[in-house]
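Memo subject: From amino acid sequence to discrete backbone structure tokens
Keywords: amino acid chain, backbone geometry, structure tokens, three-dimensional fold.
Body of memo: The sequence and its backbone structure tokens, given next.
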Amino acid sequence: MTVTQEKVEPKNKTILVVEDSDDLRKDVIEMLKMEGYTTSGAENGAVGVQMARKLMPDLIVCDIMMPELDGYGVLETLRKDAGTSAIPFIFLTAKTEHIDQRHGMVLGADDFLTKPFMADELLESIAAQLKKREDQMAQVKKRIDDLTASIALALPHEFRTPLNTVIGFSEMLQTEAHNLKPDQVSSWAGHVHSAGYRLYRVVENYLLFVRLQLLIDNGVKATEDDVTLDLHATIHSQAMSEANKANRDDDLTVEVEDAPELWIKDEHATKIVEELINNAFKFSVKGQKVTVRGKKEENAYVVSVEDNGRGMSGDQMKNINAFMQFEREDYEQQGLGLGLALVKQMSEIYGVEFAPLGDKENGITVTVRFKLK
């Protein structure tokens, strides 16, 4: 292994070398230090695990065949620990069989170098894995920044707007009660009710999102007792209700066949349908058609909701998640972006196929395939 003797700037990255051969471990450590890395060594797998947890290195270079705990054991142990699970991991080994490399990759190794190796090979692999890790962290930071910005925009609006309506109209009802005609009282009370319901829906969706996420995090799946019997009637009633609330009865088309027994709780099936239809009216305007379809296909009942609104890009559809509202700075929107996120959660719990499609010209079509009981 040839080492270049030129001076380099420190890279501010820490690398742990786990290798039972004293000579090779010292050579690798010396080479990495000359390249500007902060480097530590461990003489076997058990010590390597302890040092990884203590040092939290930016990358680990590890032999496979070692006493006490082999490289596979080191990798498997660290991948199970939340604190060390994402550390890039490079195997150094004399094993050349494809099955050995495959086993390492299945466990989560990022690269696999066979001994003897050239110094440049190891340095290139380290640089590539560190760059990959930096890119991943940059993407995570961007998602967090986008989420923070979305919450900062949505939360004040979603709480203040309905509360201002409730407070404003209730104050007018109090101060002008003796001067108001019955139709004015009814109209103002209607504004209070609508604003209160909007706020209620936001809170209920948030609480449902939290409950569902707890189920998902704990690996809870549906049971055989989860069943809904009358989804086609639910689709009709929800479609008419959402169209009426949006004052868009003429924009709605419903084409629904009778639905068989489905493997999902009735309230969750209803919630999926409600959110899909609500989302279609939210992302379109008066005069743009909303079409709701439901029909049996093989071993599933397929519901699709299509609107002809402003649409979403393919990337936006892939990034549907809680509190993520796209282009809110350009468009007035209600809610916290929880609607389709709730549909995704319930789809995961019940094994429902969830397929959102959209583009900027033709609106959004969301299809779900419910499993038959």
Residues 141-217 form a domain with the Helix Hairpins fold (CATH 1.10.287.130).
